[in-house]
Design goal:
Elements (H helix, E strand, L loop, with lengths): L9 E2 L2 E9 L24 E8 L7 E5 H6 L3 H7 L3 E5 L1 H4 L1 H4 L20 E5 L1 E3 L6 E3 L6 E4 L4 H15 L5 E4 L6 E5 L3 E5 L8 E8 L5 E2 L3
Antiparallel strand pairs: 1-2, 2-13, 3-11, 3-13, 4-10, 4-12, 5-6, 5-9, 7-8, 7-14
Length: 221
Amino acid sequence: EINVNRFFQAVETHPIIAEVRKEADQKANIGAQWHTDHSYDEIPAMGSILYAREVPAVGGDTLFASMYAAYEALSDGLKQMLSTMNAEHSSRHVFGEVAYSDRDLDDLGSRLGNTDAATQDAIHPVIIRHPLSGRPALYVNGDFTVKFENWTQVESQPLLDYLYAHARQNEFTCRFHWQQGSMAIWDNRATHHCALNDYHGQRRLMHRITIDGEALQAAAA
């Protein structure tokens, strides 16, 4: 089933499709930080489909990173520790009223909305076992992970920052170059992605559908 995004503008004729847009005169883009879609839900999105309606002449690529590879490259000691941990994820600080107070409403804020729906908090294992492949994967991300369960944010941030930097190393990543009509389909349980904001003065319009998933289970180290 479709997991309808509550915060992006919907395509008027197809409300289950989210519009990911940046106009030529806008500075901020959507999805600039490494993340996985909808991890703030108790049952996170399985996958996403992104279709390019209009792309800049240069720039606007999307980077993807493998969370299988990121996990496998961790030390045995860190794998063991993380396998016992959970992390808290939230939509509040990204899509809620607090986030909007810091935004230029004529820029990024004008393309997002429904702040009163930003009430989702979820706890997920830091290391999940993929429901289909059975492989362990790292499951924290810079957009929506707030802290480790039973840790403070101050205590959590150094380790989270280390894991984010580790996960986006070049050897774990690939780069998708868009053309009009291109389509990308990815697994949100096994990847991170980010949209490059390197096409100022040009328009980029994408349509996105996100697919329902299932509750995530921890992987034993």
